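Review the following:
>
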Amino acid sequence: GSRVLDASSAILMPFLAHRVFGWQPVEIDATWGLNTIKPGHAYSICNSLQCRQCGHLFLDIRFSAREMGRLYRDYRGEAYVRLRDHYEPGYRARNAQLESGVDYRPQVEGWLLAHMPMPASVLDWGGDTGINTPFARRAERVHVFDISDKDVVAGIRRVSREEIALHDYDLVTCCRVLEHVPYPHRTLLDIRDAMHDRCSLYLEVPFEDLMHDGGGDPLTRKKHWHEHINFFSEASLTWLVENCGFRIEATGTLQVTTAGKTAMMLQLLLSAADAPETR
């Protein structure tokens, strides 16, 4: 990565702008009396940014802890679904599919067991309710840490940051989390602090279509931003984990289907390596 970034104008999706900031789209017409502004709908503007060196593509707005709380409190609960369905008709039905689980765990578990022993204890960092936690039905002890504070599924225990320090885990999983967070390196450093010497980290992030489909410049194609505020390239993900003090033990790609849509995931199996950079 580098500090040399290119920018392109984009918008925040209305649901995101409303839930996080209370900003609602408006329609400008002649009654506004604006002589130099054309009539039409006004949305919240932002920039897409891309690193020239590693290709990482991201939203220029970095949400604060309070703003992240507004977005993810009671994630996919009734208030969330009602507001999102208002702006994105049909979301309620799609959410019902997502809530039933996106169970490609057998594929993930098979890939992991090709590279490591069966874990006896698992911590799912950002695992929501634990419905998609790898080895949830096979490991002896499975914990979930998540800011949404929703009830977890049977057989899994929710833990706080303080409780994590009291346990040694064989495997920490962080699946489809880093694309949501404003500072991915901070999340990874926090995870590294929770790992003992023999612990492994399974990291999974979406490999967004425009990052690999050959359809043109990702920066100029990315015109809107939703909950995924980081679009990783293979190079940017490698740079990130290595600079957070991890050693890459295995890499992979995984094709999954969620709510009727096919998506590609980047997979990394990591171990703690050298001392990480400062936060």
Observations:
- The mean pLDDT is 93.
